[in-house]
Amino acid sequence: xxxxxxxxxxxxxxxxxxxxxxxxxxxxxxxxxxxxxxxxxxxxxxxxxxxxxxxxxxxxxxxxxxxxxxxxxxxxxxxxxx
Length: 82
Ligand SMILES: [Zn+2]
Hints:
The protein has 4 helices and no strands. With about 80 residues, the chain is mainly alpha-helical.
């Protein structure tokens, strides 16, 4: 069994952990630390919310509703013609 990681180690891996880019072993160590360490747990939650916000914003920007509307309009026009 590996030594439990400390706060610095957990913090260093946090971003990769939240993006699920760690190996299962490394992720398990971080998760293990988070359930035992209140400070890091709070920090992880904050970072996770931030990550979700940024992902949501990125999705909006790559597919703005105006563009979606235009595509829908084109499809409708196409359907009317046939
Ligand atoms: Zn900690």
